[in-house]
Amino acid sequence: MKLRSLLFAALLLSVGVFVRGDDAADGEVQDEPEVASTAEDLLKVTSASDVRTAFLFTQPEEGTDLTAGKIVKYLIGFQNNGDNDYTVRFSDTSFRYPMDYSYHVQNFTAAKYDRVVPAHQESTFEYAFIPNEAFSGRPFGLVVNVHYEDKEGNIFTSTVYNQTVNILEDESSVSGENGLLFITLLGLGGFAAFIAYQFLGKLGKKAGFSKKRAAVEVGTSNKKGEIDFEWIPREVRNMNDKKSPKPGSPRVKKNN
Q1: pTM (2 decimals)?
Q2: In 3-state terms, what secondary structure has residue 108?
Q3: What is the annotated localization of this protein (predicted)?
Q4: Nearest C-alpha neighbor of 80 from the set 163, 127, 146, 161
Q5: 155-168/65-67 β-pairing
Q6: 193-231 b/e with 16+ CB inside 10 Å = b?
């Protein structure tokens, strides 16, 4: 079958050449037939006339200002107003250069759906992505396309969003980094103060600045001024008691 088709195509080509040759011989000049479609036109896919799409940011609600490093969520509404079913295959999201939307800055992972939307019905599709933190403080063109096909296999593409958005810096991450930096510096300052204290203490001891308290020997003392005789042997104490005169009135000696 393939060989037969090739032979048929070659036959048609040869007939066309012969016809143009005959016309040229007759002196009639014919314009070259215009090319119906270029390679770019063949690759360009349009949207279906009976399909309506919608786009809605859910996080954040203000879609024109996106935060770097934060998740972005949106919904794609697909409405089939025709009599044929459509199968939504996938959607793609990309950042474009604001001055030239044909230049892709970043392509995000495509979301695959493969969901059939019957005739005169509609469906909603969700997608989420996170802008790169390196893009903070710069505007970019955000382009979101949805790709679908009909029962015959014809492929269609609808651009559901095509606007410039601002990528903002995440202030919460900046404050967190500042807090962590403050805690780190505080810890380093405390460690440096401890090392300085230890160094100065050792330096003071070496220079003889440390004073030693003199030990003062304190003897034992009795309460109420009493004298402790316990250390004197009992025999000595008894002997002293016998020899000591008894207290009394002095006697007058009589002269003989």
Answers
A1: 0.54
A2: coil
A3: Endoplasmic reticulum membrane
A4: 146
A5: parallel
A6: eeeeeeeeeeeeeeeeeeeeeeeeeeeeeeeeeeeeeee
Q: What are phi and psi of 236, to 5 degrees?
A: -65, -40
194 CA to centre of own chain: 36
pLDDT means per 10 residues in the chain (256 residues)?
40 35 35 38 74 95 89 96 96 94 93 96 96 93 96 95 94 59 76 75 62 53 58 67 55 53
For residue 2 the two structure tokens come to 């393939």
| Alpha carbon of residue 76 to chain centroid | 26
Q: How many residues does the chain have?
A: 256
Paired tokens of 109 = 């992972």
Q: 174: closest CA among 224, 211, 219, 137?
A: 137
- Three-class SS state of 46: coil
End-to-end CA distance of the chain: 188
- Residues forming a β-bridge with 94: 107, 143
Query: What one-letter code names the amino acid at 114?
Result: D
User: Which is nearest to 170 in space by CA: 134, 140, 141?
Assistant: 134
Phi, psi of 111 (to 5 degrees): -95, 120
Q: Which helix (H) or strand (E) holds 105?
A: strand 100-107
Cβ within 8 Å of residue 110, ≥6 positions away:
90, 91, 92, 93
Give the SS3 label for residue 6: helix
